[in-house]
Design a protein that fits this description.
alpha/beta, Rossmann fold, 2 domains, 5-stranded antiparallel sheet, globular
Length: 251
């Protein structure tokens, strides 16, 4: 097992009643890199994410994190190792303030993750760290704003902050720029670049300009299998990749 890889999958396969969604995938994610998983709709990208984070059990194959076989672990066990995921649909608490959302992510350090009945004052010790995270994602001026009032792009930034609150070693981002306007996309790209400084990022992303701008390595999937892998300059010239993306290169 090569120590330069934080995450590896070996012959990872997932079958649903005869349909093979992920087929013999060997993924190698370098420590400290930004690694993009791309491909047409239905290529199996989100299923790979679900397998890595244990929302689905594999039909066969192995998953290694920091050289340890985590294939049979439960989602909470893998999350405690530092494999933390954000979702394609914004997953924040709309009726809490921006600050309160981040504090929920930080509660794990107090050992009170699910003790919602405790006095809110017990969480005040987390305020400084919460503000640090909000500052990191340019949300400090919105700390007391109810989350439902935030523009969509800012909600995605908040989701990244709550993910960071879990202190991820490997951060999985599922379509971080989906549904955004040009200005918000640019802001999120810079945010991902900033937060990746001390951790590894694996992301599923359709926007190829985002992928080209951010990624050290790209894995292209098609019909559940890996079609190509390498830096954007190399992968973007691959004839098979170009064929797979006919009609979708404007995404």
């Amino acid at each position: 097992m090569d120590g330069e890889y934080i995450l590896e999958t070996r012959s990872l396969t997932k079958e649903f009643r005869g349909f093979i969604a992920v087929n013999d995938v060997n993924l190698h994610v370098k420590r400290g890199s930004i690694h993009a998983l791309i491909g047409p709709n239905g290529a199996g990208k989100t299923t790979v994410f679900n397998l890595i984070t244990k929302f689905l059990p594999p039909t066969s194959g192995k998953i290694f994190f920091n050289g340890i076989d985590i294939t049979q672990e439960k989602p909470a066990q893998t999350a405690r190792r530092g494999v933390i995921r954000s979702f394609q649909i914004s997953a924040v608490f709309p009726h809490l303030t921006v600050m309160e959302n981040v504090r929920i992510g930080l509660q794990r350090s107090l050992g009170t993750s699910f003790h919602f009945w405790k006095s809110e004052k017990t969480l005040n010790v987390l305020n400084d760290r919460a503000m640090e995270l909000l500052t990191a994602v340019d949300l400090a001026p919105f700390a007391s704003v109810t989350t439902a009032e935030l523009p969509y792009g800012r909600k995605r930034a908040l989701e990244i902050a709550t993910t960071l609150a879990m202190n991820p070693e490997l951060m999985l981002l599922d379509e971080p720029t989906q549904g955004m306007g040009h200005e918000d996309v640019g802001r999120i790209v810079e945010l991902i670049r900033k937060v990746s400084a001390n951790r590894t990022v694996l992301m599923v992303e359709h926007n190829l300009s985002v992928v080209a701008n951010l990624s050290d390595t790209i894995t292209v999937m098609q019909r559940g299998s890996i079609l190509a892998e390498g830096p954007y300059t190399e992968v973007s010239k691959n004839p098979q990749v170009l064929e797979a993306y006919v009609g979708t290169t404007d995404e």
